[in-house]
Design brief:
This protein is of the alpha+beta class. The chain has helices at about 5-15, 75-80, 90-100, 135-140, 145-150, 155-160, 165-190, 190-225, 230-260, 265-290; strands at about 20, 25-30, 35-40, 55, 60, 105, 115-120, 125-130. Helix content is about 60%, strand content about 15%. It has a four-stranded antiparallel beta sheet with strand order 1-2-3-4, covered by helices on one side.
C-alpha cells in the first residue's frame, strides 16, 4: 500500500461514514449543536506531498473559515504544519472536533459566497458562479424587446454576452486560461531538467537491479553456509565423529589383544585408547546438548 493509499485508509478508519464522491473528493457528515454539516476533503494529485483542502457545507461563518468556507490551516496543527507523514484521519478528526466544540454560524458567510460552488481540479480550487434564479436584465425588457431578441440571433448573442453572470463566468474562464498557459510554460521550461532527472532515475533503477541481483546471490550463499551450522547439522557431524572415535577405539583394542605377548606398548595403547574414548564421550555429550536445546 503506497503512502497516498495509507492516508485515505486512515481517513476511512476514523470516519467509516465518509463518502467517496471521487478519487480526490471525500465528504464527511457530522453534527454540532443540533445542526448538520458536511466536511469536504479534497486530495489533489500532489497529495500527500501537498496538504488536503477542507471545505465546510452548508455556507457558514467561523474564525477558521475563509469567505468560501474553506478551512484555514490554523484550524488544526496537522494542517498548519502538514508533511507527508501527517496523519490525514487524525487531522480531519481534529478539525471536526474543533467545529463540534465551537460550531460555525450557518448563513453567516460573506456576500456572494453562498451563490458559488467550490470545485476541485487536481488540487486547485475555483469558485464558479451558480445560475441565478432570475435575470434582472431580462425582467426589465418588454415583451416586444424579448420577441426581437429571439428573432435576431446576433442581437441575442450580444445581449447574452452582457449578462452579469455570463461576464463573471467569462472572467473566470479567462483567468483559468491565463493560469493554465502560465503553468504550461513553466512546465515546458522544466522539460530538460525533468528529462535529465528521469535519465538519472533510470540509471539508479539499473544500479538497484544489479545490486539486488548481487544481494540475492550472496544471500543464497549465506543461506547455504548457515545450513552447515544449524543444530541439526552440527549434531549430525558430532554423531559421525563419535562413531568414528568409537570404531577407532574398538580397532585399537582388537589390535592390542591380537598382538604377540610383550610386543605391544601398554603405555602407548592406554594413551591412545583414553584419547579416543574421551573424544567419543565428548562428541556424544555435545550432541545431546544440541538436540535438547
Amino acid at each position: 500500500m503506497d503512502i497516498r493509499s495509507k492516508q485515505i485508509h486512515s481517513l476511512a478508519t476514523y470516519f467509516p461514514s465518509a463518502k467517496a464522491l471521487s478519487a480526490e473528493h471525500y465528504q464527511i457528515p457530522f453534527s454540532a449543536h443540533g445542526s448538520s454539516f458536511y466536511l469536504n476533503v479534497f486530495v489533489g494529485g500532489r497529495f500527500p506531498y501537498e496538504p488536503p483542502h477542507l471545505q465546510l457545507q452548508p455556507p457558514c461563518a467561523h474564525e477558521h473559515l475563509d469567505e468560501r468556507c474553506a478551512v484555514r490551516p490554523a484550524a488544526s496543527a496537522g494542517l498548519s504544519s502538514w508533511s507527508v507523514h501527517t496523519d490525514l484521519g487524525m487531522t480531519v478528526y481534529e478539525v471536526i472536533q474543533m467545529f463540534s466544540t465551537r460550531p460555525p454560524r450557518i448563513g453567516g458567510v460573506a456576500s456572494g459566497s453562498s451563490d458559488s460552488v467550490r470545485q476541485s481540479v487536481d488540487g486547485a480550487h475555483t469558485s464558479i458562479p451558480a445560475v441565478p434564479a432570475t435575470f434582472a436584465e431580462v425582467s426589465s425588457l418588454s415583451e416586444n424587446d424579448i420577441d426581437n431578441l429571439l428573432r435576431d440571433p446576433s442581437q441575442f448573442e450580444t445581449f447574452f454576452s452582457k449578462l452579469e453572470c455570463v461576464r463573471a463566468m467569462q472572467s473566470i474562464c479567462d483567468e483559468l486560461r491565463d493560469s493554465n498557459e502560465k503553468q504550461a510554460k513553466e512546465h515546458l521550461a522544466m522539460e530538460s531538467e525533468i528529462s535529465s532527472l528521469r535519465d538519472q532515475i533510470t540509471a539508479k533503477e539499473r544500479e538497484l537491479a544489479e545490486a539486488r541481483r548481487e544481494f540475492d546471490i550472496k544471500a543464497e550463499k549465506q543461506k547455504a553456509l548457515m545450513q552447515r551450522y544449524t543444530p541439526q547439522a552440527l549434531a549430525s557431524e558430532l554423531d559421525r565423529l563419535a562413531n568414528e572415535a568409537d570404531s577407532q577405539s574398538e580397532t585399537l583394542v582388537n589390535d592390542f589383544l591380537g598382538s604377540a605377548p610383550g610386543s605391544a606398548d601398554t603405555g602407548e595403547f592406554s594413551k591412545q585408547y583414553l584419547e579416543l574414548r574421551k573424544r567419543y564421550h565428548t562428541c556424544n555429550a555435545k550432541r545431546e546438548v544440541l538436540l535438547h536445546q
